[in-house]
Amino acid sequence: MDTATTARSAMPRPRADALRNRERIVVAAREMFVAHGPEVPFDEIARRAGVGNATVYRHFPDRRALVRGVVCHVFESVSRLAETALDGETDPYDALCDFVHAAADERTSALCPMLADDFDSDHPSLVEVRVRIERLLAEVLDRAVNAGQLRTDVSANDLLLAVSQLTRPLPGRSGTGTGRFAHRHLQVFLDGLRAPAHSVLPGDPPSLEDLRQQSCARHSPATGRPARGGTGAAVTACVVTGGSPTSTTGEE
Questions:
Q1: Angstrom distance (rounded) from CA 137 to CA 135
Q2: Which pTM does this prediction carry?
């Protein structure tokens, strides 16, 4: 056993109650961020999670760390949904539709205002889950294409970008209360993906680099930071394609 492995095995594991508290904080923060925006006071998040302020700060020493934890939690949820879509004997196209609607319920687009500042998009934990989502979703699409149910000119990035655009809140609205409209519009979109295709799509499917440039390269001329107004689809693309924060490892 090498020194690094010995050191890792010697590190104490987080207590079960600490892990439960971290999960409660992340879930509460996500709900509060979606409903009220990223500036919700920590004490409100602590109250919703049923923990003390000190517990929140032990796990997440600042707001940026908490935002990272929330977004990583959502990414992991989307990854699990893609895994579910590949399980069992579900009809490939139905599995794709189930994934899209379930991913919309994660309300990733409502978290976009939190991502308007600079974040470390290359943190290893985020890169790992991002690659996993891309791989799994490509498999979901391939199954539907091979079954002759999905048009062949649609990529995983096409799907992710369309979902993020169709599910983002209207200007001035919170991320709550829009689900029934989002699912209606998503179903119209999904019906348009069925094979055979009735039209030729213009241009080429977006690459991951295309979406990153669209998402993260729009900066304010005055500050050099991403513009807070008018980013719209660019920031929502950031959520589902990787230009977003990652999880930090909280203390007990």
A1: 6
A2: 0.71
